[in-house]
From TrEMBL:
UniProt protein name: Phosphoglycerol transferase
Bilayer topology annotation: Multi-pass membrane protein
Leader sequence residues: none
Keywords recorded for this protein, A-Z: Cell membrane, Membrane, Transferase, Transmembrane, Transmembrane helix
Spans through the membrane: 6-23, 35-55, 80-103, 115-135
Alphabetized CDD domains for the sequence: LTA_synthase
Coiled-coil residue spans: none
Species assigned in the record: Desulforhopalus singaporensis
Domain Sulfatase N-terminal: 176-458
């Protein structure tokens, strides 16, 4: 607490001093307006920092940026009604107070002491520079620049370590896979000294398999979709380097080779079951991109419940999810094809957890902590689900992987975890081997996909991950090199998002508001940058509102000497002179010569390569 006060004190002190000086000396309105605008910006930035910090415990971090870019559709807003209410009240109160102090007692004279004015603005400028959001953004920028501008040697080195080949040798009689992601259930909760008798049932199951005790958290993997990406694809989750709003992407890391891609190639049927809305943070799009045949989230699973009101803000309770998952397991096992069944739980979601009704009477000690109660409940439910699989007639042909998706985020249990030597959870159970074994090889969630492959009897590595069963000095040296250099490989990893090349047609589907390039589809509005070979980079607006089309218009008009571009949007956003009520679509071509050509679209329209090259002045 003391460290936090020291961290925030310079900003609070300088900001309060500046407002005090404005109020004390009644600076004239003409001089006060710039300060008022800057004060509003400061209040907004401060609010953003504290709201982000509520979730991350680390201010504005990479997960914050990811969700700003991808959107928050499907989030459990009911969990945060108190936060939303308090934030709005704080903002309104701050704005009212600032307005009152600056303008209520305005000095009627036109001028005030130059020294006082300079002093006041100096404090206000300092408070801006010392704002915690500015520190957060500067830290992120520095980290991102390091990632994107790593040395040429380090960047070219990436391809010596990244395994992106889908071709893997298939062994005889591969088994089925049940992969359980338990929300935030890190291995730290297994520590009996920190949490006596919190985890009991899962500890008993450890004797049936192999436990990996040293799974750390790699950079850019510390939230759910980041943890899934790292364990499935062996890479940290870098977003595209072009700053796009990612909700408009039609695929999720299409050029990455992930566990699902490999299993699909091996003939597996792939199913994902998650209690939350699978659109949140792009989970559904991720699994759909990487080979999954069925992707079922809250909206698909709720109708399967007898009581469809038995749900919370995020989605299904875990007892409902596991009941559906076990039925699915039995159904898939009865078929003659290999399958992978992936589940993602919810009950232990921060900040307070959601304990299922099936263990409503179970509480963890006398802590009066709902999240720890949910952890205790999850221990029993996850263990019961695993035990039911092991007791089934299909157990001998099933491998079970249990892991945490990431470390626990800021919650009402954070004080228990703070300062601990934290590790992620990874247990693998194969009824035919690995009895009561512990492996203390230092790894991260990046290594989990490669390790699962080896257990399934499929040779190969995934991404930057390495098989945790391989304890050789050579592999250990490789892991160390990857850990030391991963911060320099941001650009290469970002390229795995990929964009298509125009090899035939550029289609504009007005009815469905999409642009088609080959088999890829992108939501309108969209700005397409091209090179001379018609390779594309797709750019989208930062907001979903159509007013954001102005961003694209400004961009296409401002960069007259840059790459050729095609812009598709409503006509009123492309041409400022268009009637504001005009709801038609237009397409604009800006060629290498800087000439802008606008066309109204009355029907679905297709452009072919010769026409595109002519419009864009590409030889």
């Amino acid at each position: 607490m003391t460290n936090k006060l020291i961290y925030y004190a310079p900003f609070i002190l300088t900001f309060c001093l500046s407002i005090f000086l404005f109020a004390k000396f009644r600076i004239p309105k003409r001089q006060a307006i710039p300060a008022y605008i800057l004060s509003l910006l400061l209040i907004f930035l401060t609010a953003v920092h504290f709201i982000a910090n509520y979730f991350t415990g680390n201010g504005i971090d990479y997960s914050t940026i990811f969700h700003l870019k991808y959107g928050i559709d499907g989030a459990g807003f009911k969990d945060y009604l108190s936060l939303i209410t308090v934030s709005l009240l704080a903002l309104i109160t701050s704005l009212t107070l600032i307005t009152y102090l600056i303008f209520k007692y305005e000095n009627k004279s036109k001028y005030i002491s130059r020294k006082i004015s300079i002093t006041t603005y100096t404090f206000l400028t300092l408070s801006f520079l010392l704002n915690p959001s500015i520190f957060d953004i500067a830290r992120l920028y520095q980290t991102n620049q390091t990632s994107l501008e790593g040395s040429q040697t380090a960047r070219s080195d990436f391809y010596n370590y990244y395994m992106g080949d889908k071709t893997h040798q298939r062994f005889k009689n591969p088994k089925n896979l049940v992969h359980i992601y338990v929300e935030s259930l890190e291995r730290t909760y297994f520590d009996s000294e920190l949490f006596p008798n919190l985890i009991t049932d899962l500890k008993n199951l450890e004797s049936l398999g192999v436990t990996f005790t040293e799974i750390k958290q790699a950079p850019k993997t510390g939230w759910t979709i980041g943890g899934i990406t790292s364990s499935e694809c062996g890479i940290p989750l870098y977003t595209p380097s072009n700053g796009n709003s990612m909700s408009s992407y039609d695929t999720f890391l299409p050029y990455a080779v992930c566990l699902g891609d490999i299993l699909k190639e091996q003939g597996y049927h792939l199913t994902f079951l998650g209690g939350a809305d699978h659109t949140f943070a792009g989970k559904g799009k991720f699994f759909q991109t990487h080979g999954y045949d069925e992707v079922l989230g809250k909206n698909e699973l709720l109708p399967k419940l007898k009581n469809q009101n038995y749900a919370h803000g995020w989605g299904l309770y875990d007892d409902s999810l596991f009941e559906i998952a076990f039925e699915k397991y039995l159904k898939l096992s009865a078929n003659n094809e290999n399958f992978a069944l992936t589940t993602l739980t919810l009950d232990t979601h921060h900040p307070k957890g959601h304990r299922s009704a099936s263990c409503e009477t179970d509480s963890y000690g006398n802590f009066d902590n709902s999240l720890l109660d949910a952890v205790k409940c999850s221990d029993r439910m996850v263990a019961n689900f695993i035990q039911k699989i092991l007791n089934s007639s299909f157990a001998q042909n099933t491998i079970i992987v249990l892991q945490s998706d990431h470390f626990g985020m800021r919650s009402i249990a954070s004080d228990f975890l703070k300062g601990q030597d934290r590790r992620n959870l990874l247990i693998i159970i194969d009824p035919e081997k690995y009895k009561n074994k512990k492996i203390d090889v230092a790894g991260t969630t990046l290594d989990i996909g490669s390790t699962i492959l080896s257990v399934l009897g499929i040779e190969g590595q995934i991404g930057l991950g390495r098989n945790l069963f391989d304890e050789s000095a050579t592999t250990e040296k490789t892991r160390i090199h990857i850990a030391q250099n991963i911060k320099n490989w941001g650009r290469e990893i970002s390229n795995l998002w990929g964009f298509p090349k125009i090899t035939g047609k550029f289609q504009i589907d007005i009815k469905n508001e999409i642009v088609k390039i080959g088999l890829r589809k992108f939501n309108i509005p969209v700005l397409v940058e091209l090179d001379d070979q018609l390779n594309t980079i797709m750019r989208f607006p930062y907001e979903k509102k159509r007013s954001s089309g102005n961003y694209l218009t400004k961009k296409i008009l401002a960069e007259k000497n840059s790459s050729p571009v095609i812009l598709v949007d409503k006509c009123r956003y492309i041409d400022p002179l268009t009637d504001k009520k005009n709801d038609k679509f237009c397409v604009a071509f800006r060629g290498k010569n800087g000439v802008l050509k606008n066309f109204s679209l009355n029907n679905d329209t297709t452009y072919y390569i010769p026409e595109i090259k002519n419009m864009l002045d590409i030889n």
